[in-house]
Amino acid sequence: MTVRVGIIGTGVMGADHARTLATCVAGARVAAVFDVDTERAEEVAAGVSGAVAHADPMDLVGAADVDAVLVASSDATHEEFVLACLDAAKPVLCEKPLAPTVEGCRRILKAEQALGRRMVTVGFMRRYDEWYVGMRNLLEAGEIGSPLLLHCVHRNPSGPPGLPSQTLVTGSAVHEIDVARWLLGDEIAWVSCHRPRRSALVPGETQDPQFLVFETYGGVVVDVEVFANSGYGYDVRCELVGEQGTVSIGSPTGPITRRGGRESRTVAADWRERFAGAYRAELRDWVDHIEAGRPPAGASSWDGYVATAVAEACLGATPGGARTRVPLDPRPDLYG
Ligand SMILES: NC(=O)c1ccc[n+]([C@@H]2O[C@H](COP(=O)([O-])OP(=O)(O)OC[C@H]3O[C@@H](n4cnc5c(N)ncnc54)[C@H](O)[C@@H]3O)[C@@H](O)[C@H]2O)c1
């Protein structure tokens, strides 16, 4: 069986996923695309054999030749499209965040439970990155003993002008929130947030960088630096400290140049370069599971809901103030 995928949102991520599905994922075909920017949609459709650009996103969701939908439109639109996919009982891979508000995530969870089976995957692709997987395997094998601390860094070269301060949390740190839960197998119970001096080089009012601290129920402390305008490249790092050792993930290094008394290497330009392998593995796994008629793999809508709940608690925390509890609903049976 070939899984015929419809893509909603053909910006940076949607176009990249379309290319990956068309060239690297056996058993998948991009059948349809939609974007409010019709030129973008047509450009992506033209680059993929057999894909058509739809004029209405709901026509794409309902189309007989679309078996599954990938939502890669702007964050605020995710809920509407995921709900439409659930209404049509079609598997959907939604880019993170599942929805930028807890209320939006709850509506998705409710619709999925009404359907009685898991249909939603959230694009937390670091769960497919070989280094993160390696780190988790080492921890599970007891190689570094019980975890104590997790230090995370998430830097981008530059953010769009006027980037809302909260997007650093709901759009960037949300990856670290998911990674922390997934790596540690533990829920985040408390959060606190810190606002260092704003970088004078960032235009507008964006609070950049930001520093977050989480504490899990098991007592592990996680710190996260998010810096959208680091000015030098895309740099995602993480160090897990255990009772008997540590595991670190740095930026992948290209060739090292030594010249004129200096040593240098290249830093990734953006997430597509750093996580290309993870996106491929994520899409392959998603398609394999649909082909085999199995429940979706990857992060569930429950994981999406928890990530947004933690992000929302961070936004509600007083900067530099006391730690804030993360309120979580009881986990429905559907999510194990
Ligand atoms: N997993 C990751 O590593 C990762 C990385 C970057 C972005 N993202 C997420 O992917 C999504 C897309 O991000 P991007 O970087 O491609 O942004 P982008 O701005 O390049 O693309 C977003 C696209 O959505 C379209 N769009 C907006 N409203 C729409 C609507 N109502 N219907 C259809 N299309 C609509 C825009 O026209 C645009 O083409 C976002 O949710 C973002 O948070 C995930």
Q: In short, what is this structure?
A:
With 336 residues, the protein is an alpha/beta fold.
3D architecture notes:
The radius of gyration is 20 Å and the shape is globular. The longest helix is centred in the middle third of the chain and has 18 residues, at 167-184. The strands form three sheets. The protein has a seven-stranded mixed β-sheet with strand order 12-11-7-10-9-8-15, with helices on one face. The protein has a six-stranded parallel β-sheet with strand order 3-2-1-4-5-6, sandwiched between helices. The protein is an alpha/beta fold. A hairpin with a 4-residue loop joins strand 9 (210-216) and strand 10. The protein has ten helices and 15 strands. The protein starts with a strand and ends in an 11-residue tail after the last strand. The structure holds nicotinamide-adenine-dinucleotide (NAD). The site of nicotinamide-adenine-dinucleotide has 24 residues, from helix 1.
Number of strands: 15
Kindly estimate the percentage of residues that lie in beta strands according to DSSP: 15-25%
In spatial order, strands of the major sheet run 12-11-7-10-9-8-15
Measured as a percent range, the helix fraction is 25-40%
Which structural class best describes the helix and strand composition? alpha/beta
Can you count the helices?
A: 10
> Could you tell me the mean pLDDT?
96
Shape: globular
Could you state the order of secondary-structure elements as H and E? EHEHEHEHEHEHEHEEEEEEEHHHE
Which spans of ≥5 residues are poorly predicted at pLDDT below 50?
none
Largest sheet: 7 strands, mixed
Distance between the termini: 29 Å
The bound ligands are:
nicotinamide-adenine-dinucleotide
| Rg over C-alpha atoms, rounded to the nearest angstrom | 20 Å
